Amino acid sequence: MTSAALKPGLFRPNLVRQAQAWLLLLPALIFLLAFTHLPTVSTVWNSFFSTSAGTPVDFSTENYQFLLEDEVFCQVLDNSFWYAVVTVPASMALALAMALWVNSKLSGKAALRLAYFTPTILPMISVANIWLFFYSPEIGLFNQILEWFGSDGYNWLGDPDLSLPSLMVMTIWKEAGFFMIFYLAALQAISPELYQAAEIEGASRFRMLRRITLPLLMPTTLFVLVNAILNAFKLVDHLFILTKGGPNNASNLLLYYIYENAFSFFDTAYAAALTVVLLMILVVLALLQFGVLERRVHYR
């Protein structure tokens, strides 16, 4: 190393650039610390307290002990599991099918894309009210259609066996159009020369889908999967309008159960313990997604 390289003046531009970079990052870091890390630490801390009249007292682990004995929590966890297992793959598969369709040589593609994407731009409360009309026992659209076939219809949201599946159908309808946009953008980024070369080799459409389209869509699939799982565990708006977790907690989901304990029962410490459980579930799912699925992702 030469003596010129050791002169202090040569380090100043580098230090200035580093200081500028940190100053540019500072607003984002402040928001990240204030609205992500500090609330997470505070939630974990509050989960180890019992609650008396809305005030945390008595440091203990009784909230986590009560989790194991809480039958409602077990039911809510089971509901959330099946809700995610059904809605995530179904909405992703439907989104991919719609993207493949509107990306093909089809007349009226613009109107079809708009029709698919319309449910996404609707407010969640509006969507819930629309589907509340569909599911209404006497005047609902679904039961009126069933009357044409001689059926008395169903109490879609009042039947414990139908309330959660009814929520799943509404979620798939709303989520598929949103995920379709990402798949459509990824499909349009694939070079047509790949398909032309495959056609010359005599590959069928199914083989091109399996060997070209799906592997090149894996980065988008991973992105969509992360968002779909997050959406599956953060549903709360629709439950306010449709079922409020009923009947008898048959459609209650984890985030809504957290809301109930925090703002209806004012048991903030137990709600914090439930939130920690939700965070741990999301962490485990994130590790599985990025630790296992990312190995199959082919970045271009």
TrEMBL record:
<feature type="domain" description="ABC transmembrane type-1">
    <location>
        <begin position="77"/>
        <end position="289"/>
    </location>
</feature>
<keyword id="KW-1003">Cell membrane</keyword>
<dbReference type="GO" id="GO:0005886">
    <property type="term" value="C:plasma membrane"/>
</dbReference>
<keyword id="KW-0472">Membrane</keyword>
<keyword id="KW-0812">Transmembrane</keyword>
<feature type="transmembrane region" description="Helical">
    <location>
        <begin position="21"/>
        <end position="38"/>
    </location>
</feature>
<feature type="transmembrane region" description="Helical">
    <location>
        <begin position="114"/>
        <end position="134"/>
    </location>
</feature>
<dbReference type="GO" id="GO:0055085">
    <property type="term" value="P:transmembrane transport"/>
</dbReference>
<dbReference type="Pfam" id="PF00528">
    <property type="entry name" value="BPD_transp_1"/>
</dbReference>
<keyword id="KW-1133">Transmembrane helix</keyword>
<feature type="transmembrane region" description="Helical">
    <location>
        <begin position="269"/>
        <end position="293"/>
    </location>
</feature>
<dbReference type="InterPro" id="IPR000515">
    <property type="entry name" value="MetI-like"/>
</dbReference>
<keyword id="KW-0813">Transport</keyword>
<feature type="transmembrane region" description="Helical">
    <location>
        <begin position="81"/>
        <end position="102"/>
    </location>
</feature>
<feature type="transmembrane region" description="Helical">
    <location>
        <begin position="172"/>
        <end position="191"/>
    </location>
</feature>
<protein>
    <submittedName>
        <fullName>Sugar ABC transporter permease</fullName>
    </submittedName>
</protein>
<feature type="transmembrane region" description="Helical">
    <location>
        <begin position="212"/>
        <end position="233"/>
    </location>
</feature>
<comment type="similarity">
    <text>Belongs to the binding-protein-dependent transport system permease family.</text>
</comment>
<dbReference type="InterPro" id="IPR035906">
    <property type="entry name" value="MetI-like_sf"/>
</dbReference>
<dbReference type="InterPro" id="IPR051393">
    <property type="entry name" value="ABC_transporter_permease"/>
</dbReference>
